[in-house]
Amino acid sequence: MQAIQQVAGGQVIVLDGKQLRRSDDRSLGKEAIYMVSAWAGAAGLVLAQKSVDEHSNEMTAIPQLLDLLDVGGCIVTIDAIGAQTKIAETIVNKGADYLLPVKDNQQTLLDDMRGVFTLDQSYDFKDAPYDHAHSVNKNHARIEIQDCWCMSDPAYLLPVRDVGKWKALKSPVMLRAERIRGDKHEVKVRYYISSLETSAARFLKLSRAGIKAKRLLCAWDEDYLLKVLAV
Questions:
Q1: 107 CB contacts (<8 Å, ≥6 apart)?
Q2: How many domains does the chain have?
Q3: Each residue of 184-193: b (16+ CB within 10 Å) or e?
Q4: Are 173 and 192 in contact (CB under 8 A)?
Q5: What's 32's DSSP letter?
Q6: Is 145 helix (H, G, I), strand (E, B) or coil?
Q7: Per-residue pLDDT tens over the stretch 166-201
Q8: pLDDT in tens, 64-106
Q9: 213-to-3, 19, 94 alpha-carbon distances in Å
Q10: pLDDT tens per residue, range 129-144
Q11: What is the CATH number of the domain that holds 202?
Q12: What 3-state DSSP class applies to 31?
């Protein structure tokens, strides 16, 4: 792990759970296999994996994977199920930073994050201490436009209930992603919390790195994994 850390240090580590395709056999009463993996995208390495009984048990596997790994100096991102105060504390205690999505499983936090941004957004963020970054990516017939706003002013975290439970929380982040493909036009707004005090441009880069790593992880050779697990 120390040798891998030299490769992985400073990059995004994605912890993600997924069901392995074709791992169930109903005729034999065999349940599907859920695997939680730690993926260092830039290095192209799966650092560690742990199988769990079902999707809901990812919460027990994530702390175990973090205990196995030396993630000091890295930026850990997890799916919404891992956006928990104890996991954030574990990441910081291991010398890493976190970038965690805020979704419906943390409804109170999600409502507060929307409140942080909504008023200033209605004024197009004028006279507000936000850092903003904008990017446009064209890929064949698809256009992706992303805008990110963030700030590290502690006053803006005061409306967030139980903010003190999120260790080292410094930055609320809002990312607006617009995708245009032919006649289809889709807009999504996502919220994050992070222990990083950084720029919107970096958050954009980190979010893209996390998404890319998850896609690569999903493309991992599942047939090979099933052979290993069979052994």
A1: none
A2: 1
A3: eeeeeebbbb
A4: yes
A5: P
A6: strand
A7: 999 999 999 999 999 988 999 999 999 999 987 899
A8: 888 888 888 889 988 878 889 999 999 999 999 999 999 988 9
A9: 20, 17, 22
A10: 899 999 998 877 889 9
A11: 3.90.350
A12: coil
